[in-house]
Amino acid sequence: MTLQQRRIFLRLAGASVGISASAATLGIARFAVAAPNSPQPADRRGPALKEVYKDHFLIGMAGDLPGNYSQQELALVKEHFNVVTPENCMKPGPVHPSQNTWRFERSDALVKWCLDNNMAIHGHTLVWHAQTNDWFFRDGDKSAVVQRMKDHITTLVGRYKGKIRSWDVVNEAISDGGNSQTAQTENLRNSSWLKAVGPEFITLAFKFAHQADPDAKLYYNDYGIEAGAKHASAMVLLRRLINQGAPIHAVGIQGHWSTRGIPYAALDRAIADFASLGLKVSITELDVTIGGASGGQFGPRRVANLPPPSPEDLKTQADAYARLFAIFVKHKHVIERVTFWGLNDRRTWRFGQHPLIFDANNQPKPAYWAIVDLLLNPHRDLPAPR
Q1: Helix 311-330 to helix 264-276 angle, to the nearest 10 degrees?
Q2: 333: which of 16, 79, 151, 360 is 20 to 30 A away, CA to CA?
Q3: In this prediction, what percent of the chain has a pLDDT beyond 90?
Q4: Helical H segments across the chain, by residue range
Q5: Distances in Å between the alpha carbon of 6 and those of 41, 161, 358, 367?
């Protein structure tokens, strides 16, 4: 950035330039961000997130790379992230639409692109109630359904053995809501898997995945398991899996939140609770919408015709991301990975709610700078979790 650009930048932002000791060791100057919708200097790049957090945890994104992504978007992925989650192409429906049909074109392309670019891969997802075609459950015979599940997991995990570091084995098996009574139980979703196989479908899925790739780390992944009755049910479920000898290694907290309500204190406790079971934790599908509701319920989440976010909206979002990352850093010895669900505000299932840290033009938002600032300027005061 030239001196003239810097002066313009500071005048727009109403802030001064600061270089912290941590930033100096990275050779990076930290600049305040200009108000949204103001004229911006040409150079708005900051430090790579994966470098800023390299001593803490992996930084990931989700997308079915590289197809349909622009070169600018792919460059953004390579610059900031070191692990990729396939957003859709490895889900049962797209990859295995019928019993004798597999569609590996997009998943093969993703694995090749990631390996060519020295990026780790987290597989998503093997067993799920949604985006799973009915042929898995046809005729309702338990032994046949179990065999189909085993064949699916063995084929998919086996194909990428040694190439995919970890998998979401079972996704979203716990029901939403709950109360003091259901909190004493697993409160499993009444899915086709549960109806056809019973609660042991979860244990079996982990055993089949481990047999297919003994070196892969295996996750249970869900939304809302950081708070309330659903968290209590998750603890009941995880204890049962461990007692039954399921080869489960980690828990994925999805992290689909809204600035209108994030359970910071409950999240802090939940990470510690999961760690107390001997499990690692990842934040697997992180996004924080401006407005809207929290939750990872499957279904349409795109909102059209919303106005651009105001400077106040973006500041609120930035503060939320900073508080979340402060919790993640606190638990850095337990947290393996923080993955954003998407790449930018155009590449997101919550399109229109501006949930991510890069805008639709791949430019860093105040939320990006807040996450960077948390480590490069560690004296910033943040409210305690509540």
Answers
A1: 20
A2: 79
A3: 80
A4: 3-13, 21-26, 49-52, 71-80, 92-95, 105-116, 142-159, 192-197, 200-212, 228-243, 264-276, 311-330, 366-376
A5: 8, 49, 21, 21
Catalytic residues: 172, 285
The strand pair at 335-340 and 280-289 is best described as parallel
Q: Which two tokens stand for residue 354?
A: 């501006």
Q: Does residue 25 carry a pLDDT above 90?
A: no
Tens-place pLDDT, residues 61-77: 999 999 999 999 999 99
Whole-number pLDDT of residue 177: 86
Quick check: helix, strand or coil at residue 185? coil
- Dihedral sign of CA atoms 95, 76, 292, 264 in order: positive
**b or e along 223-241 (b: 16 or more beta carbons within 10 Å of the residue's beta carbon)?**
bbbbbebbbbbbbbbbeeb
The string over 148-182, giving b where at least 16 C-beta atoms fall within 10 Å of a residue's C-beta and e elsewhere, is: bbbebbeebbebbeeebbbbbbbbbbbbeebeeeb
